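Hey, I'm writing a tutorial for new members on how sequence and structure tokens pair up, and I'd like a real worked example in the thread rather than a made-up one. If someone can provide the structure for the chain below, I'll link this post from the tutorial.
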Amino acid sequence: MKRHALLLVLVLLACAKPLFAGPPFQTDDPEPVDFRHYEFYIFGGVDGTPVEIDPTGPAAEFNWGAAPRLQIHVVFPLGAIMPSNNPKYLPGGVGPSAYGITDTEFGAKYEWLKETKFRPMVGTFTMIEIPTGSYSKGLGIGTPWFKLPLWMQKSWGPWTTYGGGGYEIVPQTQYNNFAYEGWLVQRDIGKKLTLGTEVYHHGNEGYATPQIRASTLIDTGGYYYFRNPGFQLLFCYGHSVAGFAENYAYLGVYWTWGSKPGHGLNGFFAHHFPR
């Protein structure tokens, strides 16, 4: 049954868009992977507006606790563009749909302040997007672009809340620099399930994107633990409640392992796929 469930997830990911934030949500958190720990995701989602639907997937994310309070992050995605050709928004028309490698994400998350009884955790998660996708086909931006956020988090009992915001710098024609903000509250429901809801807002991202106007969304999702915390199913869906119409969804599977020197990928396969 577990094998069949995993196969179903992988099939669903064939038409999905990666979430470059705090999976499965758009809001991120400041908590890095523990030192000498590792995380691996196979995931996807979709983000669509009346202008265009951009499915991406399958995609892979790897996070490494490279030092105390420091996480190194990379995402390798495949993706597609599916223009609506709606003359209301695109009077000149657009090119055909396309599928292939999109821009690759590298990042570093650092915890500046540890959480205490009265103080939240505070951290940054700086990212650079490398132009590995085809700019001519609309699968990439054609130049490096950057995300500069600040996040904070506080937990008590089964409850956790986190959020913040940042600024995205996109030095390309018909793309805008813009601010984004989000806040999330989640709660553990027993030992197998965590559910959360977020409010997320982004500015006008530019005429060359589906998000040609600002939008505010409410997303609901969570985690189902096949093994807590080592193996999880992540899911989320949301819709705009103000601004430009937009839908968002995420689906993925997640593994984590490590804690001792030398565990690396050999430790992952030994722990999750024993002989």
